[in-house]
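TASK: fixed-backbone design
INPUT:
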């Protein structure tokens, strides 16, 4: 295991988890540290055109300074937004010298989302010449593989987000190598198997080049935004099979890609996927995107599993179980239901199942009891971490861990419904303790 491995989470400044205040960002930092996360990559979609980004980034850096716990921040300009060259120069010159800014070998780290689209000359002129040259930035972007045919359909997007080794190598040799100091993989569209393979491909290219790599891990992916302009691109659900998918990605990270760093996608992108354990009632956005569509759900089960796998990644040894708990993943409705008021189709990938995925973390053998819509299923599970699957049924959901006739953990979950107004593929991630 490499020394000083670090884990970050991608934080969208567009969606403050709690509030755009010092206290709100301090709570985010404390939540992240409780999971084992070492810092946030701050996604910044605008700057001069939307000055609230500037105040939010300022509050986040000040919150990190006041928490005073070595929590690191670094900037990630969103190249799909309205940023100008002057905006990027402004944000870097303002924060690269901040005490909480993450530096690798004394070089401030800058990533960027969808950086490939700007081209070689752009990044050379911006980072290696002019005012930013003096910062000696370590440029660690997410560079996507362009489909090359001008197509932004769902199938084309899937192609560039999960490229093969040869596709990455071709792009890297063509010009990426002339501007990047390493690469990051932003795990968004893709199944757990696809993301594991993509991490391994990027990691191989970077190992051969002698450059560092930041692997991406995600809990699930549901891009549920409504868009008449881009209906095919924005309505995608990728099945990751709950805790099974999280385990698959981390197993690949530990044993195959073995990156210097990992980044979780995402801490708080409530329109795609989120790891934050915050109670939705405390969140700024109780509903995602323009108050249309499904309610957000508590994801403390996701953050608990991430805590377990982060500890394993950092230490090189699976953590010892000292308590009994479980995480239940399931959607609010069946995959084939038709939404009464939703005008756009949902594109499903990865073999979507009407299944409850339960991951148990036990200190001794026990029985997992799942009651789904009145149907009771008992499954014997061994000590350690075990993944189980149970068909779901509409109605109330309940979960229990039973040992020697004694219930050691129990939790009731949200109902699975039999009719819907809007599509809702945000899973429950129920922590059972």
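OUTPUT:
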């Amino acid at each position: 295991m490499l020394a000083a491995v670090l884990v970050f989470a991608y934080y969208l400044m567009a969606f403050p988890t709690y509030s755009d205040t010092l206290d709100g960002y301090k709570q985010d930092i404390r939540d992240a540290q409780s999971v084992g996360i070492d810092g946030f990559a701050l996604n910044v979609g605008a700057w001069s055109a939307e000055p609230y980004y500037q105040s939010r980034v300022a509050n986040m850096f000040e919150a990190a300074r006041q928490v005073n716990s070595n929590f690191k921040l670094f900037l990630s300009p969103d190249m799909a937004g309205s940023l100008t060259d002057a905006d990027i120069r402004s944000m870097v010159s303002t924060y690269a010298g901040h005490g909480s800014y993450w530096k690798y070998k004394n070089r401030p780290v800058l990533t960027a989302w969808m950086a490939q689209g700007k081209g070689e000359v752009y990044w050379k002129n911006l980072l290696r010449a002019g005012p930013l040259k003096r910062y000696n930035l370590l440029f660690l972007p997410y560079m996507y593989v362009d489909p090359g045919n001008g197509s932004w359909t769902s199938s084309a997007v899937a192609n560039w987000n999960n490229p093969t080794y040869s596709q990455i190598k071709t792009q890297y040799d063509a010009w990426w190598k002339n501007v990047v100091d390493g690469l990051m993989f932003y795990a968004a569209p893709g199944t757990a198997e696809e993301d594991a393979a993509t991490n391994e491909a990027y990691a191989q290219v970077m190992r051969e080049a002698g450059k560092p790599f930041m692997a991406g891990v995600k809990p699930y992916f549901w891009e549920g935004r409504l868009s008449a302009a881009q209906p095919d691109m924005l309505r995608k659900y990728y099945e990751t099979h709950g805790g099974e998918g999280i385990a698959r990605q981390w197993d690949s990270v530990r044993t195959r890609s073995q990156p210097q760093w990992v980044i979780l996608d995402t801490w708080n992108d409530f329109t795609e996927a989120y790891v934050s354990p915050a109670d939705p009632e405390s969140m700024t956005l109780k509903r995602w995107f323009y108050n249309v569509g499904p309610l957000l759900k508590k994801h403390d089960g996701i953050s608990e599993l991430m805590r377990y796998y982060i500890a394993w990644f950092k230490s090189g040894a699976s953590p010892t179980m000292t308590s009994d708990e479980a995480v239940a993943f399931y959607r609010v409705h069946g995959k084939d239901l038709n939404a009464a008021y939703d005008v756009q189709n949902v594109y499903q990938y990865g073999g979507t199942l009407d299944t409850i995925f339960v991951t148990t973390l036990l200190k001794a053998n026990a029985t997992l009891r799942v009651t789904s819509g009145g149907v009771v299923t008992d499954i014997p599970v061994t000590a350690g971490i075990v993944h189980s699957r149970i068909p779901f049924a509409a109605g109330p959901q309940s979960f229990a861990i039973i040992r020697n006739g004694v219930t050691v953990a129990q939790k009731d979950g949200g109902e699975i419904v039999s009719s819907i107004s809007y599509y809702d593929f945000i899973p429950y991630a129920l922590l059972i303790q």
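COMMENT: The mean pLDDT is 92.
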